[in-house]
Amino acid sequence: MRLANFDDDGRRRLGLVAGDEIIDPLAAGGDPSLFCDSVTFIAAGDEARAAADRLTRTAPASARRPLAGAALLAPALPGTILCSGSNYRAHNAEKANAPLSGTEPEFFLKTADCVIGPDAAILHDPALTRKLDCETELAVVIGAPGRHIAVADAPAHIWGYTIVNDVTARDRQVRRSPEGFTWYELGRGKAFDSSAPMGPVIVSADEFGDPQAAMLRTRINGELRQQSSTADMIWSCAELVHFFSINFTLRPGMMILTGTPAGTAWSVDAELGGHWTPAPGLVAATRYCEPGDVVESEIEGIGVLRNPVEAWTPPGA
User: How far apart are CA 70 and CA 81, in angstroms?
Assistant: First the structure.
């Protein structure tokens, strides 16, 4: 099953993606208590999935539209996005590391205020950062609530997966002392307007398959910057569900970002400790993101999330 959100004359609507079509479940007579938004649908569990399966088969033509022509929005607006940094072995090896890097998940948060959807602009604000970087990440979407969830039980709490680009202000994140000590400021460096592009769809866990066997890629202006399997994660999706559930009761619609592989612009920024040599086929960045760039985040089994980079302008300017 695939969930999307789309714009319908200025209204955010939940859509069911079936092949090359998107179905509006409310227009097809679906129960508003199940289909009002993504989080409500996910929280409703088996009842909602059964209703969605019926509508996918029976929705009239008037409730269907071509997916290619739909104005897709972020497939959910999670109030809490739990993030794990330095969770790929190759990424952990390509950069200057803080003392705990690679020994436990780096823990930071993003919120719904960070989220934008497909084709929406990543804002470049030089007052915030002059080192705007992008990281394609697999995002785990929680389906069933729980706390202190055992690793073995984690799959039962996962509804599905989507793509999130963990946009980062590197010069806010990475701090280095004159003596060479490195530490991270993961507040201002990670959470800001447009720092969580998301989409294009949420794919249910049963359709997505093994989350530790998916290929991930990032292209900037068509250049392949990142390419890796999620098998390179240090902590698996199930292990991250366990880890974050120690702090929080995980609730339907919450998301967990699982880290990014090697190949970010940071990886070749010697000023911030980068020291990466790209593998054959990959193109090392020569600079950080600037207005006019186009970022494509791809994960096999989900699709491609595309976002342009645009200069931030004050409202009314």
Answer: 26
Question: Domains in the chain, ordered, with CATH?
Answer: 2-73 (no CATH), 81-311 (3.90.850.10)
CA–chain centroid gap for 76, Å, is 11
Cβ(201)–Cβ(17) under 8 Å? yes
User: Residue 240 CB: number of other CB atoms within 10 A?
Assistant: 24
In this predicted structure, the answer to whether residue 106 has a pLDDT above a threshold of 90 is no
Give pLDDT tens digits for 64-93. 999 998 999 999 999 999 999 889 886 566
Report long-range pairs for 271-276 (Cβ below 8 Å, ≥24 apart). 272/95, 272/96, 272/131, 272/170, 272/171, 272/174, 272/176, 273/95, 273/96, 273/97, 273/174, 273/176, 273/182, 274/94, 274/95, 274/96, 275/94, 275/95, 276/94, 276/95
Give tens-digit pLDDT for 286-310: 999 999 999 999 999 999 999 999 9
Residue type, 217: R
Report pTM. Answer: 0.95
pLDDT, tens digit (0-9, with 9 covering 90-100), for 167-217: 999 999 988 777 776 777 888 999 999 999 999 999 999 999 999 999 999
Q: Is the peptide bond before 211 cis (omega within 30 degrees of 0)?
A: no
Opening angle at CA 27, ends 25 and 33, nearest 5: 55
The DSSP result for 182-225, as a single string, is EEE-TTTTT-STT-EEEEEEEEEHHHH--TTS-EEEEEETTEEE
Between the CA atoms of 17, 117, 133 and 313, what dihedral angle is there, to the nearest 10 degrees? 160
- CA 31 → CA 49, 104, 281, distances in Å? 12, 43, 49
